[in-house]
Write a structure and sequence with these properties.
Elements (H helix, E strand, L loop, with lengths): L1 H19 L32 H10 L12 E9 L9 E8 L2 E8 L2 E6 L17 H7 L1 H5 L7 E8 L2 E8 L2 E8 L5 E2 L1
Antiparallel strand pairs: 1-2, 1-5, 2-3, 3-4, 5-6, 6-7, 7-8
Length: about 190
């Protein structure tokens, strides 16, 4: 029993020493690096470039698969997913569920350009006619109070889906999840 008490005591004495003995250097006054702020919390959106839906859609129209040597093939869009959507309706990336030359694919457009994800399942929703839907930036400005609600101290993450004439916005804040559904044609909240 005595040996056990001495081991616990040694650990308790050494633990603060171990934790406080991290390598620390003092920054030189001759260096002028405005980003040298020491240890800081990284936000989930740090370094990400938000992309408007309109920009992603225009790039989708011009997208050519690597195997295609001619003009851009006809693409039919069946669903859209925006990841980490900000207060303005811009996303960190946009994912389009498309049929290209009778082949289903997921095309993800983000800061680094296009990523193609083969999709072996049929896209079982109706085709999206972008001339008839409200764009996400307008949806967010039109429903700003409903979407942002009361700002909490916990950061929110928003995911936006467009499928079968509906926008579904999933807002996660800590352990709380809110789901809002809007008409894609009018942008109005569906209770």
């Amino acid at each position: 029993m005595r040996k056990f008490i001495s081991i616990i005591f040694s650990i308790l004495v050494l633990l603060p020493l171990i934790l406080s003995s991290a390598c620390v250097t003092q920054s030189s006054t001759s260096q002028s690096n405005p980003q040298d702020v020491g240890i800081s919390q990284i936000s989930p959106n740090a370094g990400s470039q938000y992309i408007s839906f309109d920009a992603a859609q225009q790039n989708l129209l011009a997208y050519q698969p690597a195997s295609s040597g001619g003009p851009a093939p006809l693409k039919t869009v069946y669903f859209v997913h925006g990841t980490d959507v900000n207060e303005s309706g811009y996303a960190a990336s946009w994912i389009f569920g498309v049929n290209i030359s009778d082949r289903a694919e997921l095309l993800a457009y983000g800061e680094g350009g296009w990523i193609t994800i083969p999709w072996n399942l049929p896209l079982d929703s109706e085709e999206i006619n972008f001339d008839e839907v409200v764009l996400p930036d307008r949806l967010f400005s039109q429903n700003h109070a409903v979407i942002l609600g009361t700002l909490s101290q916990t950061p929110e993450r928003r995911e936006l889906d467009l499928k079968q004439g509906l926008y579904t916005l999933t807002i996660t804040s800590g352990s709380t999840v809110r789901i809002l559904v809007f008409s894609a044609i009018t942008g109005e909240l569906i209770p």
